[in-house]
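Database export, one record per block. Field names are fixed; values are copied verbatim from the stored entry.
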Amino acid sequence: MNFEEILNQWEAQTQQPYGKKRIHKDLKNPTAVAYALENTQTLNPMDYWLRRYGVYDKDANNSENTALFDNLADKQRLRAMRPQAEIDLHGMTLEEAYGALVTFFEDALRRKYQKILIIHGKGNHSQNGPVLSRFVQKFLETNAHAGETGHPKGRDGGTGSTWVILK
């Protein structure tokens, strides 16, 4: 038996329907699509699965996470409001800054603050560029309670500080 015969045998076996009982069960189910393939017609497995089970948007019904941002007016109000608390990380090492941020976030969540400010500096005095600002950015990306972030206007710290809207 050569490779061509093996390949032809494989194609013949895989294009067969997958059982009479399963076909009858699928015909009784109104959302299922019968998996009877014609010799000339093939069905993409992904299309078959989507037709059979449908598409479910898990975020469509999740209103508790979007309750804070249900419309544009709330977003604009939160962006424009002054931070309710702030922390200054100037002069701290990364380990000290991490501990301070964790404690600060826990306290802000306990007090139900909506917006906080983290002052990390611009890194002008660092030899290898800004260290704390990159650390704060990574911390906020991995923190589950940090929502939208941004830099305030220059009079409030500019790029040397970051405001955070809490979830």
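Remark 1: Helices lie at 3-14, 20-28, 45-53, 72-80, 94-110, 132-142.
Remark 2: Confidence is low (pLDDT under 50) at residues 32-40.
End of record.
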